[in-house]
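A note from the maintainers: we've had questions about how concatenated examples are separated. There is no special marker in the raw files; a new sequence line simply starts the next protein. For clarity in this README we add a label.
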Amino acid sequence: MIDMQPVYLSIKVAGAALVFVAILGTAAALIMHRCSFPGKAVIEALFTMPLVLPPVVTGFILLLLIGKQGPIGSFLSEYFDIQIIFTPLAAVLAAIVVAFPMMYQSAKAAFKTIDPNLEDVARTLGASEGKIVATVTLPLALPGLAAGAVLSFARALGEFGGTIMVAGSIVGKTQTIPLAIYFAAESNDLYTAGGYVLIIAIITFAAVLWVNRWHAKTDLASRKDRVIC
């Protein structure tokens, strides 16, 4: 019998990470798309580094920051009696860091496809920048943002290297699906490992299928609108 706790935990971790990643990634992409300032290229490189760094390296950097001797970890422990390391929160942080570049890159690509003349028209009609973002920019970028959200969720769901560094693999507490697969395979329990592989494959496939079908419906609706016009 396969223990479903890693499945439930993985979905919770990926879902929590997605909330932060969707907000932060979209906001960062919008700012970087609209603004020019010294050091912009350096910041963009930092944003995308977790995408190319080995996950265990990302996990090690997080460990240095939020560990008991790290600047963030020691501060929280001393003043608030909070320990992040080897808790589900650490798994969420690891998932946020590795999934953020996926959302950021997708959002940035989505914003680049928007015709700036549409935003300029809204400005000439007296709309504020906040209203333009809410009623023009974000709706037009929605397909790309949705794709980025799905990719980010899938990346967070499959996070391994960073999670094992900062959250460990505590059964019933911090063991996610990828960790359960690794340790089951290491113990030669191929039945359990295969079960977890099947579960995570079904979840990610369903997420990608949903966004693909949603894109197809959106494209069909837009084509019908163009024909009517």
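[label: protein 2]
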Amino acid sequence: MTQQVPSTEPELAGVRNFRDVGGLPTADGRRVAYGRLFRSGHLAHATASDAAFLASLGLHTVFDFRNAADQRLEGADVELPGVRNVNLPLTDPADGAEFWRMVRDGDLDQLRGLLADGRAANRMIVSYRTIIKERTAEHRQVLHALAEDSVPALMHCAAGKDRAGLSVAVTLLALDVERDAVMADYLESNAGHRRYKVRRSGSAASAYTPEVMELLGPLFDARAEYLTAAFDTIEETWGGTDAYLERALGVTPAIRERLRERLLD
């Protein structure tokens, strides 16, 4: 598998899963430039030092893919001077305020009914397929903005894994980044220091038992089968990446070339 070129990552106290997407190789031997495209979890809990670091990146645009329920739970992003904030809510991979209430507050029997026997992983797969098929307008807006003026950019959702992960993956496909490199970047979200912190109500003893954490695990994992389902949906629905980009997202060869000029070395 193609390896990402290593880069120095900051230790951000209040922002999970931050990384520079630079270094990933394209099919024609080029690489994604460092300092052009970043990804992370939400910025609502960024500390003053985190915000100072983020401000130093020279960001043009922050794309926030959280929905209103996320923002009520976590708060608004920290304000970065001179940075444009674009909120494009995408389908939550475990969407629905009621579903998340049950995940947060539900008892063991309720969680078993929701998530056991492969149901949690299947929910994720269905959601990834849905985002690809139904959120073409949002991904169109992102890619056109990147081609026009929005670089350097940071993409995030709540955990920086699913909605941001798919949006980064779509961007990388438009750049002709090698498929195994796209997958490797996606799976980086499984690193212990990157993972979303699961929050459940109740005492630690009852809320975080091994069985509960096993049931919740598929919702908070980055699994190859999830991103593969998105790639398969592109093939099944549009017949391939080029047709998906042009027909669904309006990304013509000329726009793809502008994206390469802005984001590749």
